[in-house]
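seq:
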Amino acid sequence: MATNITSVYVGEEAAGFISASLLSGETLGKGNITVLPNVSYKVNLKSFDLSTSNVVDASCDFTAAGDVNYTEKALTPGNYQLNQKLCKKDWLATFAGASMNVGVDGTLPGNFQEYVISHAGALVGQEVEKSIWAGAAGTTGEFDGFQALLLADAAVIDVAAVTLDATNIVAQLGRVRDAIPSAVYGKEDLAIYMGTAAFRFYISAQAALGYLNQYHAGTTEANFEGIKLIWCPGMDADKMVAARKSNLFFATDLVSDMAEVKLLDQGNVDGSDNVHVVMRYNAGVGYATSGDIVYYNA
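struct:
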């Protein structure tokens, strides 16, 4: 008699699957923002700042001078899930069919399980990438991304956007560069984050200018006057963000019971040929210091 196979991973057992899924996106996969990995409820992002007024002429006494600015922002990840039902019969003609039987005692081969879990994880990674930048909490399955958060924050430095193309992208990047605060400019982890269209326009402009005398034959460096350029597939067109990696955060929980990856064969449950795919995780983004971020937007 064949044996139904059920794969269940919860909490720490699910950590590897969830982590791999989230990191399948461009932004997280290349470590372009700071990941806070074990946030089950919320985390406070702390901003501590001393100004030049704190430095004064020396005296014999201890005299406090200047202000200390300390703020906290709560980052509370939301809970999300992917639930799907597959019928084994529908897969008999596929690569998995050779080792699969249907019916109450049908089997679910290991390579098919791996495929389904991998495919579900890739979909989650794709959706998380989108939410990181252009997500809206009012849309099911999404959390407020950086675009929504920065737009609502009056302390963020705004640069009015135009419709980008290959002829104006260099000039517009110059406007973003000029708006970066002096205290942030030159920091090692400073970058300008760009959507797909803007990134393409910059590569095209560099090629037209004859980058390293290679023109359209070479690979353009993702760098603008010493500032790293980062491609963000989830960002909307005509948007750019200049910020330090250490000021942009993604929070998720990989070890609690909320992190789940399940592939449940229903043959021994209700006698059907269905397989339930279950994936649960939490996620959210935030930043600590508003005044250090430049947001290029309409």
